[in-house]
Amino acid sequence: MTTPTDTSTPALTDFESRLAELDAKHLVRTRRVVEAKDGPRLQVDGQAMLSFCSNDYLGLAQHPALIRAAQEAAAQFGVGASSSAMLSGHEAPHDALEHELAAFVGLPRALYFGSGYLANVGLLPALVGRGDAVFSDALNHACLIDGVRLSRAESRIYPHNDLDTLAHQLAASNAPRKLIVTDAVFSMDGDIALLPELLALCERFDANLLIDDAHGFGVLGPDGRGTAAHLGLRSPRLIYMATLGKAAGCAGAFVAGEAPTIEWILQRARTYIFATSTPAMVVQAVRASLQVIAAESWRREHLTRLIARLRAGTAVLRWEHPASSTAIQPLIIGGNQQALDVMAALRTQGLWVPAIRPPTVPAGTARLRISLSAVHTEAEVDRLLAALRQS
To answer: Which CATH number fits domain 64-295: 3.90.1640.10, 3.40.640.10, 3.40.50.150, 3.40.30.10?
Structure first.
């Protein structure tokens, strides 16, 4: 006999009330259905839109060479890896890609993960644990924050790019292993971390430096080799992580560094050991992407021009536009509802620019996050600027 459900109990009504609280604070998020893509030109819920919300910074997600590589690999290897890498899922394309990624960023060895989130929540518990100490920038991405929590190491948060506070925290720590963790390019502000200074602190206090270059890889540095290359950094203390679903236009992520470090991560990262391997069709697309990134420098050059054009146009707007030389260009609106209103006004003109609200950004700094791509045109940037002037 079944017992009738009592819908008045707190356990069953809790989520409804909590959702109502989110709604009252203008923090409910909504997914949109994208039906077709032509670079930044999309069909969204049936409406033609020009997108400024993609992380496809080089416009490679629909590149013919990447599509062809994926199609050929699907025919040869199928559409699923069918196993973890530690069993039978580490196929020849995976092995080749890891060697190519290491060579691309100029480090001895690399390890490929299924996503950036999987990489970071696996990396941190592999690198540090109870009794160790992690020093994390206050504006780090959620996956780094979650990785720190999962590591169970002592966590110290330093204000964004505040080297003095970080130095005091390092000096006060007696932990046997110290790890500084930072985004290389911060995902909501677009600014670049003070990596040379952070590496100098690592030398001074015998720490290692883990950088998440999700938004710099492919865009910054010679041939798009990333933020570390852009700043000329080389050190055995550097552990370099980057994603392949943004500028590379594919999926996955990798970590690169000294060979013993990467071997230890392979042996200890649970999100690598216990996850089904990424299909070879994706891996082959990434390999094709590395070739395009290095060969088609015009994409980065055009993107640089678009960034300058946008910043020149936003200088006259009423909103704060923090300094950023990267494809991420935030406009700080302030209130949650106000940011949503500006986003809605742009949508009526066929422009998709996302409003970013807490907890993704600090309270009171709701913003439009404009992201530019090499497949935008100057006329499209001008169209966005005209619409912003009217909003």
So the answer is: 3.40.640.10
